[in-house]
Amino acid sequence: MSATGKLIVFRGGPATNTYVWSPFVTKLEARLRFAAFSYNRDAGSPRSAPKGKIPYVQFPDATTLGDSTLIIKHLVDRDALPDLNAPLKPAQRAQDLAIRALLEDKLYFYHGKEKWCDNYTTMRDGVLAAIPWPMRMIIGYIAQRGAVQMLYGQGTLRLQDDEITMLMAEIWDSVEALLQEAKASRKGEKGPFWVLGGKEPTEADATLFGFVAGALVCDA
């Protein structure tokens, strides 16, 4: 636990200010930064995570919680973070949820195939860099086998490579169109623009930022 009594975000990589490869880590950290929420970082490990995945957090009372969406919801419910979607109308909330689902429940798996199947060695040596070489080979093999089983069960690995490329491009093209429309709605105004075209960010913006940053920095 942090000596300062702050929330600790375990991000699966070095506890620095640089982005890690996981879009869910960056999503959570962006959400905290939107609210100027002070926290500490640590590397952590899936083996120590309450749900067996990154990110997870530890609260000042030493309790832990996993899953970026559940962590954000927990902090919102306790008024530690503002509810970004509170001002939205029902149709806007549905659109926000649809954007998040498109990224987290579709695009994530296409990128997973790209990382763990097409660029396995790069992925292994990146995410397991802190593990000595002999053990890295064994743990990497176990991680890849689990990823392949998950991707096949989910359906991504039942598709041809060109089909996955087409579907992945369709998602990014759709997101690009939304962002272009949101930017145009600003009519030359300075400052950030948000995916739903509003004056303030919503949950979808944190998720989208996580996926954009993750795609740009991940060597795999």
Automatic annotation (TrEMBL):
The lineage of its organism: Eukaryota, Fungi, Dikarya, Ascomycota, Pezizomycotina. Belongs to the FAX family. Belongs to the GST superfamily. PANTHER family: FAILED AXON CONNECTIONS-RELATED, METAXIN RELATED. Transmembrane segments: none annotated. GO terms for cellular component: cytoplasm. This is Glutathione S-transferase. Residues 23-119 form the Thioredoxin-like fold domain. Coiled coil: none annotated.
